[in-house]
């Protein structure tokens, strides 16, 4: 029995893949907040791998990976309702920034010759 003045929220029926995903993402506390930011983790992963390749003197592949990370941020912003901290400004500004910068970096990495 519940205490007086304390009401329990009814549980939503969560079945199938989408129910599992909602339970994983909407978990309360720090772990749930971290899990909601997985698009940012993917983008940062691309950037870190790219910087690692640049440090190993494979700068063209490293710059390409950084560009792919920016394009993936644009894809997350395009297709996800709430991509987390990837959101900077309005959707249009974000898409122009992410796609423009990502494609520019990829083209730069592709056309600059090795020294």
Count of beta strands: 0
Q: How much helix is in the residues? A: 55-70%
Helical segment count: 5
Beta-sheet strand percentage? under 5%
Largest beta sheet, briefly?
none
Structural class: mainly alpha
Q: Give the N-to-C terminal Cα separation.
A: 75 Å
Instruction: Please compute the radius of gyration using only Cα atoms.
Output: 20 Å
Residue runs with pLDDT of under 50 for 5 or more positions: none
Task: Please provide a written account of the structure.
The chain has helices spanning 16-25, 30-35, 38-55, 59-79, 91-111. The chain starts with 15 loop residues before the first helix and ends with a helix. 66% of the residues lie in helices and 0% in strands. The longest helix is centred in the middle third of the chain and has 21 residues, at 59-79. The protein has 115 residues and is an all-alpha fold. It is built from five helices and no strands.
Short précis:
The chain has 115 residues and is mainly alpha-helical. Helix content is 66%, strand content 0%.
How is the secondary structure organized here?
Layout: H1 16-25, H2 30-35, H3 38-55, H4 59-79, H5 91-111
Give structural attributes.
115 residues; mainly alpha; 0% strand
């Amino acid at each position: 029995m519940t205490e007086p003045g304390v009401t329990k929220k009814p549980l939503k029926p969560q079945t199938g893949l989408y129910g599992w995903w909602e339970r994983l993402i909407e978990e309360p506390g720090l772990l749930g907040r971290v899990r909601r930011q997985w698009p940012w983790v993917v983008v940062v992963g691309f950037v870190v791998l790219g910087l690692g390749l640049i440090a190993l003197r494979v700068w063209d592949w490293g710059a390409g990976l950084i560009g792919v990370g920016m394009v993936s941020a644009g894809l997350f912003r395009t297709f996800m309702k709430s991509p987390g901290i990837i959101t900077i400004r309005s959707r249009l500004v974000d898409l122009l920034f992410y796609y423009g910068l990502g494609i520019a970096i990829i083209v730069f990495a592709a056309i600059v010759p090795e020294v």
